[in-house]
Amino acid sequence: MYHDEIVEEIHRIRQEYSRSFNHDLEAIFADLQKKQAESGIKVVDLSRKPDLTKRWRRKKLMIAQAQDYQKMTPEEYLEWEAQQEFRYEYVDGEILAMTGGTIPHTKIYLNFYTALRPHLSQRGCEAYVSDVKVRDSKNNRYFYPDLVVTCNAEDLKSRDFIQHPKVIVEVLSPSTRKYDRDDKLKYYQQFSSLQEYVLVDSESISVEIYQRGEGKIWHYCRYTEGESITLESIEFTCAIEVLYEGVNLEIPEKKD
Question: What is the pLDDT of residues 193-247, one digit of tens each?
């Protein structure tokens, strides 16, 4: 899921160190040694601290990338992201950092995938989780939903990304709840192939489904404990408890 805090922290670090990043680390320490020689303060000998230099250069590279990646074209984004350790979504020219979810978050979408897979295998469809990129070619946007279902022959042969999603599932967390409900709902509805958008809460037993109707109409239904959810586009029904099997919904108290 996408976290605003990650991007804000990157910008904070960049601003804090931007002046120092205009120089090599070796030059900074050489200047300190020269200016502080008379005071008797011992400055770190970089020749004996190779790991420090390596970490500094790595951080410098990360910040430099953070300065540039929000201005990338779709082609530049694809080339850049292929070299990154972590995943990033691309929306209207902006790069959105993805982070790992909680254990309940992960268990929920894996439970959903496990329940769907045998049903979909009989219908010539497939479900993918988390690391599979979904491309909106019309608007040049790229997403990593928690779970996506496609029945499109082109998608089933693809090695790069899904372009014709039929069902998209996002597991809600406190940091992404608003984004998934508002912005992503708007973005996902622009996929002409999408029939259902599913939001599964990770802190309580609650599932919301947006279902495509006639024209621009989308129908909404919310399910809770003791009920069964239905995805009409793939004729799938299961008890809501199946999605929460083995999931700890108790939220730990914050320590002072």
Answer: 999 999 999 999 999 999 999 988 999 999 999 999 999 999 999 999 999 999 9
Pairing of strands 167-172, 196-201: parallel
What are φ and ψ of residue 162, in 5° steps? -90, 135
| pTM for this predicted structure | 0.72
CA distance 163 to 68: 27
d(CA 247, CA 245): 5
Residue-range domain boundaries for the chain: 4-97, 103-243
CB 90: neighbour CB atoms within 10 A?
Answer: 24
Q: In whole angstroms, what is the distance from residue 200 CA to residue 105 CA?
A: 9
Contacts of 160 (CB under 8 A, 6+ apart): 133, 135
What are φ and ψ of residue 28, in 5° steps? -65, -45
SS3 110: helix
Q: In 3-state terms, what secondary structure has residue 79? A: helix
Environment class of residue 48 by beta-carbon count within 10 Å: exposed (0-12), middle (13-18) or buried (19+)? Answer: exposed
Q: So what's the architecture of 103-243 in CATH?
A: Alpha-Beta Complex (3.90)
CA distance to 7, 57, 244, per residue, from 22 (Å): 21, 12, 51
How far, in Å, CA of 104 to CA of 250, rounded? 10
